[in-house]
TrEMBL record:
Pfam families: DUF1508. It comes from the Bacteria. This is YegP family protein. The lineage of its organism: Bacteria, Bacillati, Bacillota, Clostridia, Eubacteriales. Coiled coil: none annotated. It comes from Proteiniclasticum sediminis. Residues 16-56, 75-121 form the DUF1508 domain.
Length: 121
């Protein structure tokens, strides 16, 4: 199976999930109000993911990177997560929680690799 973006309806609009080749969700969007907005969000992930640097906010004295970028951080539950920010600083995709930073970084690499070629369903 190839990686793909799957668009879903929610109670308040539309969102997308980026699925890896194994079918696991590797990134999710926020809720958009229209189909056009969701398509723009997907295109933004396809464009920004491969050129984004990694900003490790869990490292002491980390370097702040320019947008677009992936931010790796720890959530309130102590899990590692990432968010992809577009050039304008807007969050365009987020991850689930990971137990280890290495797994989270692997998730970032998976998005960078899979997003540009992913089909849209």
């Amino acid at each position: 199976m190839a990686s793909k973006f799957v668009v879903k309806e929610t109670k308040t609009g539309l969102k997308f999930d980026l699925l890896a080749t194994n079918g696991q969700v590797i990134a999710t969007s926020e809720v958009y109000s229209s189909k056009a907005a969701v398509q723009n969000g997907i295109q933004s992930v396809k464009n920004n993911a491969p050129v984004s640097e990694l900003e490790d906010q869990t490292a002491e004295g980390f370097s702040v990177m320019k947008n677009p970028k992936f931010e790796v951080y720890k959530d309130h539950a102590g899990e590692f997560r990432f968010r992809l920010k577009a050039k304008n600083g807007q969050v365009i995709a987020t991850s689930e929680g990971y137990k280890t930073k290495a797994s989270c970084v692997n998730g970032v690499e998976s998005v960078k690799k899979n997003a540009p070629e992913a089909a849209v369903e």
